[in-house]
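Following up on my earlier thread - several people asked me to post the actual chain instead of describing it. Fair enough. Here it is, all 123 residues.
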Amino acid sequence: MNYDTIILELFSRIQKLEEEVKSLQEVIGCASTENTAGDNPKTTTGDIRTYIESQKLQAYSSGQTELTLKANDIHKNLQLKNRMPMVCNAMRQCMADHDVVLHDTASGHSSTLEIKYHLSGKS
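Reply from S.P.:
Thanks for posting it. Predicted structure:
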């Protein structure tokens, strides 16, 4: 076996993952820093969409073909308060034709909203 090649490949993968983690920390870091004094009205649907797209990209980069996200998980990860309708709207806006809503409620803005995103078309 060529251990040098294997080690170099592993280092390359680690570097790529570190870059992805850094970009995710920037997205999440802004939300957590701003929310320390309570709910931050500056968090926008666009910020939440950016987070969702970064999750999809990370899943695709790790070889997954689909990603299931729940509104409550996103709400918690971004440390939001009283922003569930915004999270649900962002989740729907990130959907493509082939994505599927697995669970929804009559209001459409529940923490239990669950969407399966298919990642085969990501680049």
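The chain is about 55% helix and 10% strand. That should answer part of your original question.
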